[in-house]
Design brief:
Layout lengths: L11 E5 L4 E5 L4 E2 L14 H16 L2
Antiparallel strand pairs: 1-2, 2-3
Length: about 60
């Protein structure tokens, strides 16, 4: 099957926030929550945000 148009983006994106970097959750339309009722993935270094985004993606896909 061939997909036409924009390539699919992942759910978790690394973005620059107002104060540092954040992992944006495109499903929730805001900062990703690291664990249920836990802290949000914001005010991070770019490296921390990239590592966390990879971990969250792996956790959601079951890898």
């Amino acid at each position: 099957m061939e997909l036409i148009g924009r390539p699919m983006r992942g759910r978790f994106l690394v973005r620059q926030g107002g104060n540092g970097w954040m992992v944006y959750d495109s499903e929730l339309k805001g900062p990703a929550q690291i664990e249920k009722d836990g802290a949000f993935a914001e005010k991070l270094t770019k490296e921390q945000a990239e590592i966390l985004a990879e971990r969250l993606t792996a956790r959601k896909t079951g890898s």
